[in-house]
Amino acid sequence: MRKAFTTSIDTDISDSFKKSCENYGLKMNVVLESFMQQFIDQEFKIEIGKTGIKLKIEEN
Fold first, then answer.
1. For residue 34, which of 17, 47, 50, 48 has the smallest C-alpha distance?
2. Who has the most CB within 10 Å: 17, 22, 41, 56?
3. Which of 32, 35, 41 is nearest to 4 (CA)?
4. Residues 16-33 pLDDT 10s
């Protein structure tokens, strides 16, 4: 089953993300779903600092 997902995103980030996805020949929803699954599976290390949040792939 598919579910519509809407949220507000910074325009510059959204535009850059769309272009990057196009450069890889991928649809944005495919990349977002992959990212979301990796986040769910806790494959990222979350670092919170003065400049914001950074996600790094956890090394096994």
1. 17
2. 17
3. 32
4. 999 999 999 999 999 999
